[in-house]
Specification:
The complex is a heterodimer of chains A (388) and B (297).
Chain A (H helix, E strand, L loop, with lengths): L15 H12 L6 H6 L2 H33 L2 H27 L6 H18 L4 H23 L4 H22 L30 H24 L1 H11 L1 H6 L4 H27 L9 H14 L4 H21 L4 H17 L4 H17 L14
Helix pairs in contact in A: 1-3, 3-8, 4-8, 4-11, 4-12, 4-13, 5-6, 5-7, 5-11, 6-11, 8-9, 8-11, 9-11, 12-13, 12-14
Chain B lengths: L3 H32 L6 H17 L4 H27 L4 H22 L18 E4 L2 E4 H23 L1 H11 L1 H6 L4 H26 L4 H17 L5 H17 L13 H15 L11
Antiparallel strand pairs in B: 1-2
Helix pairs in contact in B: 1-5, 1-6, 1-8, 1-9, 1-10, 2-3, 2-4, 2-8, 2-9, 3-4, 3-8, 5-6, 5-10, 6-8, 9-10, 9-11
The chains are: A mainly alpha (388), B mainly alpha (297).
């Protein structure tokens, strides 16, 4: 998506005023070092940014419209269910992407956080008759608090130690969940009754009872979460995160409260993951702790690295890899073990040759291919001859 | 509360398990200090070795030969990974290096599930030859595998410590751990030293795989992620001291095992490594002693 860059011809008049703002935002974007942005002249920047922004907006709208209206019609129920999972896991990958790609914090326990969110949402859905969106928000908020409480001491540790402590925490949460079990409509704080014969399913929102409707619901929630993260990335916290990722001492020297912004990223990631957990609870009807092995956290990090942690598109690619690929493989009768192998190879390949992941590498390669094909006949735009 | 009598067999099991945790922890620390790579595929490599040994024994090959093949396979696989992926990632952050070994772990895990499917509930078990000879100490039956596990943990720690201190290669390895660039400038063949560390780590992963397959279960997923429990011992030692790793490994093994007979805690016994490692990290952090070693190695 967003590969073919059509429509960089004439722009509607009146868009000029916005361009300055867009350009400023783009420069503050975390993706490239600020020095690079400053080296380009402002004239180039304005003429360069505007069409790209519109292409981006158009691409997002097209993808969203396609996902909302075309997918449930074209695909069979089997794939619609898979796409629901894609939407949910895109949110999880988005949260992990904020940590890994924006701030440089590697978490090996994100699937455990997802399980926490799912548990909380399931408990609330059984215990209360609150509307579904409220439950989602509450699950997100509770997961955020838990994640922050856990994260506060852990964040003082650096790089590898943080990854290891999240791995240990994930292990601990997995053990606790396998003992406590997911709520199944029982009584008490834990809401689990092992002797229950007729287990009521976890309820869904009233306007999204069917699988297709729930899929649309999940896509809308996912889109909102992407907007939330985009908003963070494009504003003050995003710039602070970029500074922290590039050099923590420099960020500290620039007056950025690094602990606060790291914790902020942690809280944001926990929140969106908690909301994803709530969606997961609604989509699954029944939750079992065996569905949340510690391996999931590790696969999750692997896939986010493969798909590209530095771009928001990477989160969608990660969701597709995590959930659509297994569904396809199952349909084709290929063992899902091949997917595990594929992810492993992908991690090694990405880390050694394409550190920004598929979401960055594939468009780049396609663009290079396009340039090769069109050759010298292509209109030479001076601002485009620079590095991509 | 069970009586001391009930705890005794679990103490034996725990000591054996602790020995393997220590052995694994030492293997990972030595590699981490020498190359900056935290080998998270340690468990997967050992698991694959153990499964190959199981296959060979089932095919009628001498048991001891199969054990040797297991260790050799693990050593060679680790070495090959180190030689192929070590140099291109040498200048990267330790996090990236560790994440790359996760890639290897996933490849091996997928391959193991493909080759040795668990469909139809086929449960495999690897019983080492040393299981059959037992002796009794104050009414507790102890088999030689358990003795070997604990002894290996201790012996490997002591031997590695002495080797790092007194041999030429060991000194070179410590030098590389301190500063790779300067060591290379001084004429130490850095690549060869690193290869030696990979090989040693591989041998230990093979041994750990064999012992854990016997002591815990011969199951690809279990063995692969048991590395996390072993890692706890290394984390408590701050990825630095092998003596602390030995003690931590044994303590984790014993506590984990001793919780099993206590009814209210039996389900949480598996949490022991994580809780102990988490507490250790927090204690270290609040004492604020140089924890920022992420760039070091």
């Amino acid at each position: 998506m967003g590969i073919g860059e059509g429509g960089h011809g004439g722009q509607a008049p009146g868009a000029g005023q916005v361009a300055g703002v867009e350009e400023a935002r783009d420069a503050g974007q975390a993706l490239r070092p600020s020095s690079e942005g400053a080296a380009r002249g402002p004239v180039f920047a304005i003429s360069r940014v505007r069409p790209e922004t519109w292409v981006r907006v158009a691409a997002v709208t097209a993808v969203l419209a396609f996902a909302l209206f075309a997918v449930p019609v074209i695909l069979s129920l089997y794939y619609v269910d898979a796409m629901t999972q894609v939407a949910i896991y895109s949110i999880v990958a988005l949260g992990l992407g904020v940590l890994v790609g924006r701030v440089g914090l590697y978490s090996l326990g994100q699937a455990a956080v997802l399980a926490l969110g799912a548990w909380t949402a399931a408990r609330l859905l059984f215990a209360t008759s609150l509307p579904f969106p409220v439950v989602l928000l509450a699950a997100g908020a509770i997961t955020m608090v838990l994640g922050t409480v856990i994260g506060l001491p852990a964040l003082r540790l650096s790089g590898l130690y943080l990854a290891l402590i999240t791995l240990m925490l994930a292990g601990a949460i997995t053990v606790v969940l396998s003992t406590v079990n997911f709520p199944n409509g029982g009584h008490g704080f834990l809401g689990y009754n092992g002797n229950l014969i007729h287990i009521p399913p976890i309820r869904r929102p009233s306007l999204a009872g069917s699988d297709a409707a729930y899929y649309r619901y999940a896509v809308v929630v996912a889109a909102l979460m992407f907007l939330l993260v985009l908003w963070h990335v494009r504003t003050r916290p995003g710039r602070a995160w970029a500074a922290i990722r590039q050099s923590e001492p420099a960020a500290l020297a620039a007056g950025i409260n690094t602990t606060r912004y790291k914790l902020w990223a942690w809280a944001l990631a926990s929140f969106v993951t908690g909301v994803a957990g709530g969606l997961l609870a609604g989509s699954a009807h029944f939750l079992y702790s065996i569905d949340f092995p510690i391996q999931n956290s590790i696969t999750l990090l692997a896939v986010v690295l493969v798909a590209g942690a530095f771009s928001l598109w990477g989160a969608i690619v990660a969701g597709l890899l995590l959930q659509l690929l297994p569904a396809l493989f199952q349909n084709w009768g290929v063992s899902s073990d091949w997917i595990t192998i594929l992810f492993g190879v992908g991690v090694l390949q990405v880390l050694t040759t394409a550190p920004r992941g598929l979401a960055d590498q594939v468009p780049k390669d396609l663009r290079r291919l396009g340039r090769l094909l069109s050759g010298a006949t292509r209109r030479a735009a001076p601002s485009r001859t620079g590095t991509t | 509360m069970p009586s001391w009598q009930d705890f005794q067999p679990f103490l034996v099991v725990g000591l054996a398990l602790g020995g393997v945790y220590a052995l694994s922890g030492v293997g990972m620390i030595v590699l981490y200090r020498a190359t900056g790579v935290l080998n998270l595929a340690f468990g997967a490599i050992g698991a694959m070795g153990a499964l190959i040994a199981w296959q060979l024994i089932n095919g009628g090959i001498n048991e001891w030969l199969a054990y040797v093949v297991c260790v050799a396979f693990s050593a060679v696989l680790t070495l090959v990974y180190g030689v192929v992926f070590g140099p291109p990632l040498a200048a990267r952050d330790p996090l990236v290096k560790a994440a790359a070994t996760l890639g290897l772990a996933l490849i091996l895990l997928g391959a193991m599930d493909l080759l040795w499917t668990s469909n139809g509930g086929a449960v495999r078990s690897l019983t080492l030859a040393t299981d059959s000879s037992t002796f009794t100490v104050s009414q507790i039956q102890i088999n030689w595998t358990q003795v070997i596990a604990l002894a290996l943990g201790v012996v490997i720690t002591v031997v590695t410590g002495a080797w790092l201190r007194y041999t030429k290669l060991g000194t070179a390895m410590r030098a590389v751990a301190n500063d790779r660039q300067i060591t290379a400038t001084l004429g130490v063949p850095v690549r060869r030293v690193e290869a030696a560390a990979w090989l040693g780590c591989g041998v230990l992963s093979g041994l750990a795989g064999l012992l854990l397959a016997d002591l815990v279960a011969l199951d690809a997923t279990t063995l692969t992620w048991l590395v996390i429990s072993s890692l706890a011992a290394a984390v408590i030692a701050r990825l630095r001291s092998i003596a602390v790793t030995l003690v931590a490994g044994i303590v984790i093994g014993v506590v984990e095992s001793m919780l099993v007979p206590i009814n209210s805690l039996t389900n949480y016994a598996d949490m022991t490594p994580f809780v102990l490692a988490g507490v250790a990290l927090l204690v270290v952090m609040f004492r604020r002693r140089e924890i920022t070693v992420s760039r070091g190695a």
